[in-house]
User: Fold this.
Amino acid sequence: MIGLAFRFLNRMYVVLFVSFSLFSLFFIVLISMVYNIYWDGLFKDYHVQTIKSHAYKLLDDMRERGIRTGPLTVEDAEWLERRTRLYGLLVEFTDGSGTGVWYNSIDRTGSESTMIEEVPYIVGGEPAGRLRVAFLEASKELNPAMVNFRETLETRSKYLFGIILILSVAISFCLAFMLTKQLKRLDQYAQSIRQGKWVKHIPKKGTEEIRCLALTLSELSAELQKQEEWRKNLMEDITHELRTPITSIMTKLEAIIDGVYEADQKHLDKMYEELERLSRLVSDLQRLSEAKGAQFAMNKKCTDMTKLAKQVYVNYHPLALKAGIRMSFEPAHTPAYANADFDKMYQVIANIVSNAIKYTSPGGKVSLKVKWTKSHILILCQDDGIGIGEEDLPYIFNRLYRADKSRSRFTGGVGLGLSIAKALIEAHEGFIEVESRLGEGSTFVVVVPNFTQAN
Assistant:
């Protein structure tokens, strides 16, 4: 039961509803307190102004009766007692200096009183004494009109705050429901994606953050669908690349065993070629695994990248000429050194140049350039060959991915070269990127920290 209660309270709409409700309740209580303080102040000011008005009326009545300074007669004292009770006042009547007290009802009450004002008592333009006026705190609650008004106001305030409380709870529930409704909808789409049911379009409704989440889920679904298709193709490619040489070897061996073929040098050479192709595939997969796991040995040292790139150019220039391709080399105009493994960097550049020559038609051009910046060395290989489609660019560094779907194992490798190149470059704390347009050519850029930056 405790677990179920905790799960219920931990739900998003419950948390939001409780949060909104408590937030609203806090402000209602705060506003109520301020409201009561405000009206209490208004009531007090009103009462004080009323008492002051009565005090000035009492002064007028005293002048009309002819009361002057000095000890009061019994009749005047009784009259003043009746008048002060009528007006709800406490009065102290003294001479001008305050030493002679002729009448004092403030001290006689023995209850808490509030002093309002002290005014001179003027008769015929001459000071005749001094009058101090106060009132009992309890008298504020004895005025029937004021009490009735306050009760009416308090009743209306209770109804008003009750309505506000109900509205705030209802609004909190609606807001919590609306927000969690969109999140539940996205959760359903996410569950579908988890189960392999790709969602092509997710409605983008709700707040800005929820719309962004819906967009992210749409893009994630599309990307996972592409990755799933790529994985299927990967397994097909691996199966094909392994099965083809094995089938060829087994067929030839069966033919030799059955006496169809003779075990001569020609047939043995063909079987050896198939085994060699199979061995290259396994070696490439092993190198890629080592590169991804950074398990290979690195012999990094200060390497002249211009010299390295030029050696690649010199070695592959004859291959380019044979294919009818013009190949050029542009060195950096300043010494370009990097902390690199010469052999592995050579493997990276050679793979890129080899691909450029392979996918450039006769009459095309391949250029190899080395550039220097303050922090990095850039090696660019640019060609005007068949190029790479926009839909293939994000995946060309994936294992066994081939942008040219029609390419067979006889026209090139198995799609591991660029994956290995990327892993090797990352092992040098660099990166590789490509820009390409289908039918217009490609530009591969290898970027590694220069020797000064690396040290």
User: Anything to note?
Assistant: Residues 405-414 have pLDDT under 50 and may be disordered. Residues 128 and 342 are 117 Å apart (CA to CA).
